[in-house]
């Protein structure tokens, strides 16, 4: 009997978890809480099948998708140097490769595996604009055959404290986690917050330092020591190991094995030793979360029934006033920061001009040093091509560090300017917290003050290949003649001009790229806070609608509804206490 069958049979022997979730789902549907109902049904299904979720989490650019591709032996998840994953993607066992997608409010639909990127990548589905509710990929991987499902999650770095909204929403479904860290930086504040939140629910955390091939032994040792110290202080538990791997090397079947085999063995041990308990814990955790959410819905319903309509109207009026003031404050602040952005643009232009002055002479000097050591050739077109490629290599070496320094400088400036937006948003949230409007618990308590550039870089080095080779028959003939005569001066002169041209063009593009990243990041931050305002308004309006409906029903209808709520509340608390007893016996 396979591990999956053993898990399924063991869980089916005690249907209390699955049955409880199905009943809670029915109650949620009765109260119109379809999101809660759908989540409960989904967990009940995977509990009955003996499946548990191991989520791969970490900041963007940690190589999470590449790591998962290497673990399952198939390159099916989109990867790249920019944030690519827009929403959690579940990878589960299947006899054949396959995939399916589910949109919000719809059923599952089969899709080609090659089309997965259209739904899960940030490029083709930015911020989940397509409204995808879930994506599952079926893979014939032995690692997944015994019930484990791997989950690719969006990289961290949201405006909201803790992590991106999509990853945050998935936290209650995580049964174990692969935490992917790096050497630069070793562990971000967002990552630490998320690990802390997950550790409160689950015990199995596997720490992996990816991209080990890009760092020295000393850098990796320092990063692992730092990571362990920070995690142990925060989690109040010993971190026994951090696996050093290079998912890219593994995918390309090159380089040393490092800790790869140990990592795979750790996952296999997790399935064998903890798979059954993880499935049961997932069911119990889902019962607890679902019951607590439903009890909150009942409290809201009861408050709406008992509260005088005039009081509800007054509370909603106060909240509308708060939202309007927040919108006005954001509008005034946006105008001020737009002027500040213009000033920053001039600063970036001045820094570019300073870079050109500082880099032209050294770049030309390096170029001539290399020219002096080159072996003379008689093929004129080849000479021009070699010199132009040399020019590209030298300019790239100067532009790379400058791009990094400009990005760091822009990060600092953005952090300073964004603080005014953050303070404005937090003031709004603090005022909302005192409004007494039910349902606002879903809003964050505070916006993250540790901001970074949210917009990705679009800069790519311009090699100008059309300049790097002869562009006309006349120039080709001329190069052939000059090469035969051994006259390299023309080639060197043109290549020196090419160095200046590459510096000019690409430094301008770096300046524009950094400037646009700051502009786009500010727009995203402002948009995020405005969406927060709209969400608060929507919650308030729903609360008011419930109050109006309750009052319009009449006294006897209100009393009957209160009695019904009491009956349902007792049932939910009974399910919750039963789940607690089952968990204590395990």
Short description:
With 586 residues, the chain is an alpha/beta fold. 63% of the residues lie in helices and 8% in strands.
Write the layout of secondary structure elements.
Blueprint: H1 3-12, H2 16-30, H3 34-48, E1 52-57, H4 64-72, E2 89-93, E3 98-103, E4 108-111, H5 117-120, E5 132-139, E6 148-152, H6 165-170, E7 176-181, H7 189-199, E8 205-209, H8 217-235, E9 242-244, H9 247-251, H10 260-306, H11 309-373, H12 380-433, H13 465-468, H14 473-485, H15 489-552, H16 555-585
Parallel strand pairs: 1-6, 1-7, 2-5, 7-8, 8-9
Antiparallel strand pairs: 2-6, 3-4, 3-5
Helix pairs in contact: 1-10, 2-3, 2-10, 2-16, 3-10, 10-15, 10-16, 11-12, 11-15, 12-14, 12-15
- Biggest sheet, open or closed, and with what strands and sense? 9 strands, mixed
What is the count of DSSP helices, taking H or I runs of 4+ residues? 16
In the CATH hierarchy, the third-tier topology of the largest domain is known as Four Helix Bundle (Hemerythrin (Met), subunit A)
When the domains are counted, the total is 2
What integer value in Å does the Rg equal?
29 Å
Q: How far is the N terminus from the C terminus?
A: 23 Å
Write down the overall mean pLDDT. 76
- What is the architecture of the largest domain at the second tier of CATH? Up-down Bundle
User: How many strands in all?
Assistant: 9
Helix content: 55-70%
């Amino acid at each position: 009997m396979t591990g999956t069958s053993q898990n399924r049979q063991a869980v089916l022997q005690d249907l209390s978890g699955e049955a409880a979730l199905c009943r809670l789902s029915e109650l949620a549907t009765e109260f119109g809480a379809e999101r809660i109902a759908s989540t409960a049904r989904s967990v009940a299904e995977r509990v009955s099948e003996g499946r548990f979720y191991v989520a791969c989490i970490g900041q963007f650019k940690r190589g999470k998708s590449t790591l998962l591709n290497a673990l399952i032996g198939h390159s099916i998840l989109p990867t790249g140097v920019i944030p690519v994953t827009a929403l959690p993607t579940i990878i589960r066992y299947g006899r054949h490769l396959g995939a399916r997608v589910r949109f919000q409010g719809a059923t599952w639909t089969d899709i080609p595996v090659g089309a997965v990127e259209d739904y899960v990548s940030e490029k083709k589905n930015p911020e989940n604009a397509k409204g995808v509710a879930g994506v599952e990929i079926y893979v014939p991987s032995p690692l997944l055959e015994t019930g484990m499902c791997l989950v690719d999650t969006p990289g961290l770095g949201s405006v909201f404290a803790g992590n991106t909204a999509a990853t945050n929403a998935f936290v209650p479904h995580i049964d174990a986690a692969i935490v992917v860290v790096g050497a630069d930086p070793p562990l971000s504040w967002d990552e630490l917050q998320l690990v802390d939140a997950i550790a409160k629910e689950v015990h199995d955390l596997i720490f992996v330092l990816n991209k080990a091939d890009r760092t020295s032994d000393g850098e990796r040792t320092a990063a692992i020591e730092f990571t362990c110290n920070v995690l142990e202080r925060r989690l109040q538990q010993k971190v026994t190991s951090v696996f050093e791997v290079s998912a890219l090397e593994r995918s390309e079947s090159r380089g040393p094995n490092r800790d790869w085999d140990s990592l795979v063995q750790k996952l296999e041990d997790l399935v064998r030793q903890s798979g059954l308990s993880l499935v049961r814990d997932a069911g119990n955790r889902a019962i607890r979360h679902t019951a607590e959410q439903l009890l909150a819905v009942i409290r809201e319903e009861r408050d709406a029934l008992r509260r005088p309509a005039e009081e509800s109207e007054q509370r909603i009026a106060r909240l509308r006033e708060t939202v309007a003031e927040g919108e006005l404050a954001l509008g005034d602040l946006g105008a001020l920061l737009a002027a500040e952005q213009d000033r920053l643009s001039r600063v970036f232009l001045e820094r570019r001009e300073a870079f050109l002055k500082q880099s032209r002479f050294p770049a030309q000097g390096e170029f001539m040093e290399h020219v002096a050591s080159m072996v003379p050739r008689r093929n004129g077109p080849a000479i021009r091509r070699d010199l132009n490629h040399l020019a590209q290599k030298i300019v790239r070496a100067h532009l790379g560090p400058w791009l990094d320094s400009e990005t760091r400088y822009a990060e600092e400036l953005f952090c300073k300017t964004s603080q005014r937006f953050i303070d404005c948003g937090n003031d709004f949230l603090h005022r909302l917290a005192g409004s007494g409007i039910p349902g606002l618990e879903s809003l964050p308590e505070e916006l993250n003050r540790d901001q970074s550039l949210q917009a990705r870089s679009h800069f790519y080095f311009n090699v100008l290949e059309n300049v790097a080779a002869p562009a006309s028959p006349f120039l080709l003939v001329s190069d052939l003649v000059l090469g035969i005569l051994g006259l390299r001066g023309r080639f060197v002169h043109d290549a020196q001009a090419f160095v200046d041209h590459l510096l000019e063009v690409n430094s301008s593009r770096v300046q524009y790229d950094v400037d646009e990243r700051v502009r786009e990041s500010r727009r995203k931050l402002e948009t995020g806070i405005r969406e927060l305002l709209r969400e608060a308004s929507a919650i308030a309006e729903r609360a008011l609608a419930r109050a109006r409906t309750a009052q319009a029903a009449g006294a006897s209808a209100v009393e009957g509804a209160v009695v019904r709520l009491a009956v349902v509340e007792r049932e939910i608390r009974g399910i919750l206490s039963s789940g607690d007893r089952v968990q204590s016996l395990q």
